[in-house]
Amino acid sequence: KESSPFINSSDAAAEKSQQYDRKNMDFPMVSSLLSSLANYSNLPQGSKEHEEGENNEAESSRKKPVKAPQLGTLMGVYLPCIQNIFGVILFLRMTWLVGIGGVVGTFVIVFMCCTTTMLTAISMSAIATNGVVPAGGSYYMISRSLGPEFGGAVGICFYLGTTFAGAMYILGAIELLLIYIVPKAAIFPLEGLEGAEQEAALLNNMRVYGTILLTSMATVVFVGVKYVNKLALVFLACVILSILAVYAGVIKTGVDAPDFPVCLLGNRTLVWKSFDVCAKTIETTNGTVTTQLWRMFCDSSLLNATCDKFFSMNNVTQIQGIPGVTSGILTENLFPFYYEKGDLIARENMQSVEDPDDPLTNANRYVLADITSFFTLLVGIYFPSVTGIMAGSNRSGDLRDAQKSIPIGTIAAITTTSFVYMSSVILFGACIDGVVLRDKFGEGVHGNLVIGTLAWPSPWVIVIGSFFSTCGAGLQSLTGAPRLMQAIAKDGIVPALRIFGHGKANGEPTWSLLLTACICESGILIASLDAVAPILSMFFLMCYMFVNLACALQTLLRTPNWRPRFKFYHWALSFLGMSLCLTLMFLCSWYYAIVAMVIAGSIYKYIEFAGAEKEWGDGIRGLSLSAARYALMRLEEGPPHTKNWRPQLLVLVSTDGEQNVEQPRLLSLTNQLKAGKGLTIVGTALEGTFLKNFEQSQRAEQALRKLMETEKVKGFCQVTVSSNLRDATSHLLQASGLGGLKHNAVLVSWPRNWKQGDEHLKLRNFIELVRETTAADLALLVPKNIAAFPSNGERFTEGHIDVWWIVHDGGMLMLLPFLLRQHKVWRKCKMRIFTVAQMDDNSIQMKKDLTTFLYHLRIDAMVEVVEMHDSDISAYTYEKTLVMEQRSQMLKQINLTKTEREREVRRFYPCPTSKCTRSSVQLIHDNTTPTSPATPATLLTPPEAAQSPGEQVQMTWTEKCDGEPAKPPGAATQEGIKDIFSMKPNQSNVRRMHTALRLNEVIIKKSSEAKLVLLNMPGPPKNRTGDENYMEFLEVLTEGLNRVLLVRGGGREVITIYS
């Protein structure tokens, strides 16, 4: 069916033969109409397939052609909606609502509820005509418009609403049975009981009979929906005949009012059950005789008997319960009459003689209010009578032209039912006396159903008709709800509900039916129609609210795929409908509304956390895209303020030949640093061409995603392919991020085994990466011994995070330990800050200033100032420096092939007239940013470098060059190699090695037991001949430390003392 764009083309001839010429007449032939009536079904989509499956199980081997859907607007949408909307509330509670709320108040309630459903129908029509709606109906529409999270939450709310509607219909059927049809069938007798005891007996009867009826209905549905289907037309006929009987009765009251007397004592309505004549005494040939009414209030039948005080003081009056539409009773019924539970139902325009001190006696003789009534209660009880508007969309697969039938049929059904409801409010108020309207169970009119007293030709038309229609509605709820649950379960968005997707061989949802029956039983145990109605109102209102939200969202986002055939919609109407739904929820019952929202919210979060990932092209994804675009455009306006700075990490990892990540602990550290809630991009570089290595890059990306999921790192992954790894890494550094949402820090692990000849390329790549991050003003974090870092499952119960603050780098060294300590791995660790004082520094003042600085930063840490004195350069230092330089020269001359040597010459020595002879560490001064009072001077400062006290300092390795001609590496002769072993160490290198060794000694002494040591990372040498020396100095500086994080700032302040 879905494969062909012309769905109904095969049936065009058959359709034409059954209809008159369209130019002359647009009505179907009688035979066609009768055929449609014979095939009428008010079951949700899928039920017919189950029925056919039951009938054809024996013939399953013989394939039959698929029958195209034949239902039109009338049979497929209009009548099912009519049958679902008209229900138990109209027959059992409508007259009571008019009596309590008044004609004006009830008309406002009806108008508000009908407006809500009409606006929802408009929104639903727009969604339903925006493409083909397959099986699932309303659930399908909402989930595909709002996404799996909202779809699941609303789908389950709709399911619960439908299930509780089944309970309400069953309770209505039992109320009709026990009160109006066969009152003597009560298991718990009501005779002689008063007040709470009578109420409890009635509720227990409802529970017992409700459970029996539910069990029998569930059995019918289980055995086969074909039996329900065959009765659908009978139930529809009952509904229509009952409503026609009411209108006929109203017309008749204008001509000849029916005789339904009501007996009043004073102004109190009497229960007309145990007496025959509405009088205290009657005159007979033998004189004055007391009546049965007399004996109800007096202790004997004698005229001088002791009687109830109120009975003695007031007269008995008989009035007409239905004065007629022309009687003018409407003016008395215009305004509300709210009662407390147990109040007497009294006629307002009649006076009675009462003794204020006299307690109420014989309460069971009067008609009493059974519940406390108020406006919002009436809203909650009435709203279920306008639900059922989804009946057409639920059966969209059975419609000949769903996109035409659903809007027309649904809106026409709501218009019809709204007219009936609004007119019935006015007609009931105009025909029936107020005391009868407020008599919920018709106790004052001989126990008749109040709306039945108005019907013509007999009250039994309404009683029997409403009983069958409520039973039919209950059966339809028990048939529809399990299929809705099955559709949700089969979608797989709620893992806990997967079992309910299974059923019988023909697809009948057995487990879903069992769940539905259990939930329905919980509603029946409540036993009160008035208590169950607000519950299902909540769930239906929640569903309708999200239908309106879906339409408004799609309209405002203007997604290219939003092209509904139904044009009479607007986002403002959808928002109005959504607002009305929300208002009605809190009007009905604010605590039920909160419970329903909590249930929907919990389901939403559960699906978001544990549900299957679904991409349905829904509106929420579109909203996310629009919001993301707007936020990115705002971010472009300028760099973030220091207060908003957070580490946006680009994590560079390497992969092996199988595309597995070589440093998984790097992502563990990333997770532990994410207290800043910034951006995370995990990137890796592959060597080759993109066309040839596309599959390899896809595998690498999947490996990254899997590891990110394992390590619970929320972010993005990116794989770059280039002709060499150096360029690929550079592309990652330059191109990652989007707009203002770019990385500001790079996390890369220290290259292992860089001293080995075959790892020389990794060494070069690392140094170049350090240079590029410096050029791009990016912060750099380099964890050394990454394999020793803790996983996310480990916990440190004690220990320290030590910060060695040698140079002020914008506050990165302060901020990173604070972020780490937010994670449960590092939470128990304490923070210590060490700074170094030289000979001419005041270490006491430095400690005081640093403590003040940390106090203003709101960072809790211990402060220690370490003093370092100059000492003689040891022989070990000379030896260490010499070994380093010899190794460096040998690597250059031995490990490079001739071609590599030539390439290195061209790369590193473009001008052969310069040779670097002397290396030293220089300070780069930044006069723009003042340092904190506690900023120490660097230890690695040569004596010739001048320093101003207010300048920010950063370390870098700088090669000073003179004009001597250069000898390319690798160009040395065999004698040159021999000269390596007789060379003397460079004095600059000796001084740097001395400083590194001394600082390493101090760090080992103070921080050997620390869980993590953070150090300033100096910048790389500007000329590339000193790369190996730079790495060697860093190795010496960190030697003997288990976990080290080398940190280099990005050239801006990242922490501030201001709020």
From TrEMBL:
Biological source species: Gouania willdenowi (Blunt-snouted clingfish)
Residue span, Amino acid permease/ SLC12A domain: 77-251, 360-650
Region feature Disordered, mapped onto this chain: 1-22, 40-65
Every SLC12A transporter C-terminal domain range: 664-781, 795-875, 991-1059
Matching InterPro entries: AA-permease/SLC12A_dom, KCL_cotranspt, SLC12_C, SLC12A_fam
Membrane-topology descriptor: Multi-pass membrane protein
Keyword Heme attached: no
Entries under Gene3D superfamilies matching the protein: Amino acid/polyamine transporter I
Protein name listed in UniProt: Solute carrier family 12 member 5-like
Alphabetical UniProt keywords: Cell membrane, Chloride, Glycoprotein, Ion transport, Membrane, Phosphoprotein, Potassium, Potassium transport, Symport, Transmembrane, Transmembrane helix, Transport
Regions crossing the membrane: 71-92, 98-129, 150-182, 208-225, 232-251, 366-390, 411-437, 535-556, 568-593
Any single GO BP term: chloride ion homeostasis
GO cellular component: plasma membrane; synapse
Chemical reaction(s) catalysed: K(+)(in) + chloride(in) = K(+)(out) + chloride(out)
Compositionally biased tracts (Polar residues): 1-11
Compartment list: Cell membrane
GO MF annotations in UniProt: potassium:chloride symporter activity
A Pfam family this chain is assigned to: SLC12
Family: Belongs to the SLC12A transporter family. K/Cl co-transporter subfamily.
